[in-house]
Structure formats: C-alpha cells, structure tokens
C-alpha cells in the first residue's frame, strides 16, 4: 500500500492520520469528561479512597455509590484513564484512583473545573457546534437553531424561557472559568500601583474581591445590572469598608470618576459598534487620565497556536461577536478615543491584560 506522496515517509503519514483521528474523536473525550463529572464518579472514588487511606477503589464500588451500571462504569473509567483523569491499578483488579488532573473535576477541589465542564460539555453547547457548517456558509450565529431565541442570554434568562434550567449551568460555568482566569491574572499582573478599581459588568465580582484581598490598600466598586447585583453579588464582611456595589448599564453609563476601570470577558460578547459605544461611555465617566484594563484574549499572528483562535468561533456562533488581535484592539480603542498602552499575557495563556489610557 502506498501512502500520500505529500508525506516524507510512511511514519509521517501514520502519525498525521492518527492526529486527525484524535481530533475527530474529540467529542468522545468531551462526553467522557462530562459523564464522570455529572454522575460524580470521581467524587465518589475520591471519598471511598480517602476512607481507605488512599487505596485504589474498585469500579463496582463506585457504581454502587453512583447508581450506575457496574460493567459500563469500569469501561468508562478505563477510558478516563486514557485521558489521565484516573489511574487504573492491577491490585485489586479493576480499581482506580483519581489523578492530579482528575482532581480538578472534584466538587470539593478549590479552583475546580467542574462548572465549565458541565457548561461547555452541555447538550446545548455541543448542539451549537454541530451547526458550525451552517454558520460557515451564512456567517450568521446559530442561537435560534438551538435555543429558539435570537439573543443567547434571553434563551435562558427570560421568565418564559424553555431553557430556564440552563441558567444555573451557565452561572456555574462562568464562575468556574472566572476563578481560573482570576488566578492567572492575579499571578501575572501587578495591581499594587492602583488605589481604586471599578469592575464593569462584573457578575459576582470574583476578580475584584480577590484583588482587594491581595492588595489591602485598594478600594473597589462592583458594577452591573440590578438583578445581577441583587442575586449574584455578596460582599464579605472583611471587605465591607473597601468594596461597594453600584447599579449601571454599560450601554448607558457607568460609575463616575474612578481612576481605573476593568472589564473581563465583556467586549468579546459584542460587535465593534457596540464595543465602541461601551468604551465611549466609560471614557465619558472616567476620571482624567484614567486607566482602562480590558481582560480578554489577544489573538497572536499566523502559525502561533492559541486557544483563542478556536474560542473566536464559539463567540461568532453564539453572539455574532469575536476575539481580537492586537491591531484590532488598537483600532477599537482608538475609535473610542482611548490611547492604547500595550498588553501583558498571563500565565495560563487563556487571557491577557490590555491597558489603555484616557488623555
């Protein structure tokens, strides 16, 4: 059998074909990760192992605790071992322990990825990706095909929504990825030179509250829509004198006269026209010479691998929006009359800190 003439050797052909298979089977891996998370196989494995001083736990014991089929539980866990989520042991046979990677799926784990796995691995989001070809042909988002709504957020937040149960999945997913991004930002970026920050569209305010805990000289404002502040934001007692909540709609106005404004994963939800409107509203309200921190992907140039290049498609399919390159950020900020200063990547490679200045 001859291999492709484009390949330098049979080995190169087989390596590349195997890589294509791995990409094609990607949705299988998503399903495995979601199943062991949603049915709590790893949580029960972790508890049972702890009760045995860290010893391996047999698949049938886990199945008994989780109410799953014993034989298929073993086979799913064996598959999970191929993803390095668990380790299979010979003694006793068909027994497992949770790996360090797998521990990030545990409910008890600080900084757990559980929420984002159940969110991005949900039936709803998987169905969105099945419509990529339609999006490719038309350039239009596919939210209506999946949620029967034109606006993604309306699909599960409206009172009469058919997908109201997805709201909790969305919130837990956002909290999970927000904590991951927050850890990366705090590890990589020095906020010590600032005295006060207003977090725009902050949701629960996870990032700002952790910044204030790390930098006790700072004060901050969590700003979002009324229902978000009422339902999602709790300010801990130790921050009561340094952190406040203020209602705003960034399409209309934001809290006034802060020296620093911060937005995390807000602008990638919107097209350029809406982004410019938001940025101009912030500039109008900002103190003289204020700093703007935009926490988003900065897409690198050709041939540089970045998860943002894939996430960009996700935003296009759901919101008709996008991730942006450095040049696109420069242009966007200039149109809103902000002076671009530069950007700093963070340790995770999943988010960058873009800085601009009001002149």
TrEMBL record:
Recorded coiled-coil stretches: none
Organism listed in the record: Galdieria sulphuraria
Record's protein name: O-methyltransferase
Keywords, alphabetical: Methyltransferase, S-adenosyl-L-methionine, Transferase
Active site: 268 (proton acceptor)
Positions of the O-methyltransferase C-terminal domain: 131-337
PANTHER family reported for this sequence: O-METHYLTRANSFERASE CICE (PTHR43712:SF2), PUTATIVE (AFU_ORTHOLOGUE AFUA_4G14580)-RELATED (PTHR43712)
Annotated ranges, domain O-methyltransferase dimerisation: 22-107
Domain of life: Eukaryota
GO BP term, pick one: methylation
InterPro entries linked: COMT-like, COMT_C, COMT_dimerisation, SAM-dependent_MTases_sf, WH-like_DNA-bd_sf, WH_DNA-bd_sf
